[in-house]
């Protein structure tokens, strides 16, 4: 709280901040708020999605307006309905201790009459999408001739969506003397044009480096044959049981098709794209926020404005046409100081595009391989073990224990464990035992190591504040191995896998004999799979509508837990 107070915010805003549990301002808030509070200036702020931009312009605007004056004093333009409503809700929360404050959302797909009625009541701040705002100005339903502050949020997104003319028309009805604050993740030429044409000597602040991806996100790519793209997606989901992800496709048709196939194959999935009605989109987003949907398949346009906490993975089922769009995609994860993973599924002909994106975001991609069947079996088995270990006992089961104990009385503890884990392990093993290797060779990439490789399981993971980079560094330091001698590091929620050359196997096992991390025993085991190519056996022999495309259909639905699992059919 002291840190927010030092920025110059008034007590009524500090009280709202305390209610929301904010303790420390983000970098963009530290840079932007003092300038916007103390100087009547235009501003261009470049910062990634998820860095706290709404508060960066929201607090200064609220502190500067007069809630006792019913004239519209502030306008915030945003690219989508979802983002418009999100900003409105946040502004209302920030201004909860400002009597008389009216923040009104203006967007398409809702009653224009009702929105006009809200404006007529006196809205000091309007949050709007460009299309509906232009329409209402044209009908004489909104007057912005006296606004003092105008925010263009996600400016690059609005311009990518073709709103340049609408923005120009809207701003032509506003006073020249207003302060204009532009917030954007990237700085393409059109954003520079907006700044040049509609702003007066703006102050520019940058969080990080221009057009650079977040340091909280690691980037991976997987090379497969184009026909195996969907099966690769399913394997990546199976190899990450706690996945909570957004999957990006280029077209509305592909988005709907992939979502339908995932649902048919037993995953908790949903689609969001432009062909859905507003009510359908609202229902999908509500289910995703409540984690009833584990995998949200989206187009780039429909995903703009998605602000959901704790997204673990962004999966690029197809690469975007424009490299800067990748920045926005990957920015959906690794937010609020947490780490995330951006995965890209590419064909061999698309690998060259990875280099272009690397140059754009100034981050390196790690070439990885689609997991084999035995790897997925192991991940699912260890995930089940950790779920059992961490689950709370439901006391209502006590009434059934006498009968259960009687039924299982002939089995020892070891036999019961074997039976419990055989259920999950056997399902995946039977399914994947004939599955083919999905990895395609590419000149670029490579995963390190040689053919004589050992793969290990270790009982530390993301819950222990490891990502693949920090775990690799930890292992290299502990084992005194070189830069390329620890590889194929895959971090899950509470456990991980990694490889070394087999020549180091005894040394690795001895190093962890009795090893403790912060007082906890660290266990390491040798995995049966080396994590290399040609791991999965022969070709898929299952019959179905699309051959390998039905690789999972009707089988092995993941047990639902706390809304994150896959639905049973």
UniProtKB/TrEMBL annotation:
It holds the Pfam family DEAD. Residues 216-378 form the Helicase C-terminal domain. Residues 2-30 form the DEAD-box RNA helicase Q domain. The keyword GTP-binding does not apply. Keywords: ATP-binding, Helicase, Hydrolase, Nucleotide-binding. PROSITE patterns: DEAD_ATP_HELICASE, HELICASE_ATP_BIND_1, HELICASE_CTER, Q_MOTIF. Residues 34-205 form the Helicase ATP-binding domain. Residues 526-569 are annotated as: Disordered. Residues 533-546, 555-569 have a biased composition (Basic residues). GO terms for cellular component: cytosol. A motif (Q motif) lies at residues 2-30. One of its GO terms (molecular function) is nucleic acid binding. PANTHER family: ATP-DEPENDENT RNA HELICASE RHLE, ATP-DEPENDENT RNA HELICASE RHLE-RELATED. Belongs to the DEAD box helicase family. This is DEAD/DEAH box helicase. The lineage of its organism: Bacteria, Pseudomonadati, Bacteroidota, Saprospiria, Saprospirales.
